[in-house]
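User: Quick sanity check before I run a bigger batch. Here is a single chain. Can you write out its predicted 3D structure?
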Amino acid sequence: MLYSTTTQYAIRGLSELAGRAGAKKSMMLYELVEGTTLPREFLAKVFQRLVKAGLLTSAKGRGGGFSLARAAHDISLMQIVKAADGDEGLDQCVLGLDRCNDTVACPHHDLYKPIRQRLGDYLQTTTLADLAASLKTKPTWPAHSE
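Assistant: Done. Predicted structure follows.
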């Protein structure tokens, strides 16, 4: 698994919001999870984290709900990952060692370094608009498998 459960739901929830909110721009959480396998209660907690990170805004009451804090093409996948899980996961040792860097490297450090760089580039250049567009061509999320 590349992303934590929190990050997976952040990506899925934001993709749904960007793809489905349309001209309305704001959606109640119950509307957003309708027709998906997204768990409403957990997604509510994830979305509150995204509000605190400045990726979403929320309003209570009639006409309320969640909306993107800025345009989907201005929100990168990297921003979503960092908002959901922080910076730690991106720089961790592939073997889980506490100290692993260019100076004190684990046996896999040099092999994994270019993969980490490519992943970072992908996260920086892929936007929420890209994810929402992809969702339109592949609208069904695969069922969770273990």
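The helical segments are 5-20, 29-33, 40-52, 77-85, 88-91, 109-125, 128-137.

User: Great, the batch can go ahead then.
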